[in-house]
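thread: overnight batch results

M.L. [08:02]
morning all. the overnight job finished for the chain we discussed friday. pasting input first so we're all looking at the same thing
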Amino acid sequence: MLGIKKNISLRFIITSLLLITLGLIWSECKQLWDEGLKAYIQDMWNILDFITNSLYIATYTLKLVAYLKVITYSCAHKGD
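M.L. [08:03]
and the structure it wrote out:
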């Protein structure tokens, strides 16, 4: 019973972090659209935000690839 509750809370946390990350990315896209590319790039905080968001995307992508590889491996070796 405790394992199920722990799994649900972990999923909730991961989903919440993903939604927050998507909100941050949306905010930066909106700011880029409003200010224009030249003004956006001149502010070094925006460059830092871009790098941070890129690392978030890379992290989620690697987690997804690892999850899919585990699923594929477990399905391929189910009969072993």
